[in-house]
Amino acid sequence: MKTLLLAAMRCSLMFTAVAVTPLFSIQPAQAYSVTLQQIGSNVVANGTGAINLTGLIFQGTSSVAAGVNAPSGDSVVPQMNASFGAILTGQVGVVTGYTGFTGPTSFGPGGIFFATTGSGDLVGISNGAHALYVPVGYVSGAALSSSATWNNATFASLGVTPGTYVWSWGTGLPNQNFTLIIGGAGVPDGGSTVSLLGFGLLGLAALRRKLGC
Hints:
The chain is of the alpha+beta class. It has three helices and 13 strands, in the order H-E-E-E-E-E-E-E-E-E-E-E-H-E-E-H. The strands form two sheets. Strands 3-6-10-9-5-4-7 form a seven-stranded antiparallel sheet, with no helix packed on it.
């Protein structure tokens, strides 16, 4: 009886390890995406992910984004211009521009609106200016995180149209795209977590047969 109990415990521990290990494996950073949401009386943008600069053409460093002079003078501020296909989130600073992407020319009829506040990395895109903006000194593939808030605003007042907008470049390598989601929908993980769990369960079943558990 003792031998049977030990065997059962050993099988149980092994099954747990097989099933759980894939969920804790290191995953590559997701491509950069910005989610624009209505939160209370404000519109809030949150951006996370990484950008692969391969396939883009360096433009230079600039303190003017989307063809609009920042109200602070020398630095770029977080801003949005739906009719220009432009959104920039993060804290006030200087950006480096790249061109060579394709995507939507606009995401609504709205004009230029400077954010009330911004924090994190200064990141954005402007189809009108044909530029993708990243922080000065940004290393291709590094994780980015930024946010911006437009107080006392709505999608209607900012002139943005709910939906998902994607700009892309290069040859289809990971993170060669910039996504804007208006309306609060989450970014799917491409089924990676579900797939890993599935492989883990298949391995568990095979191990059970092999050990006769």
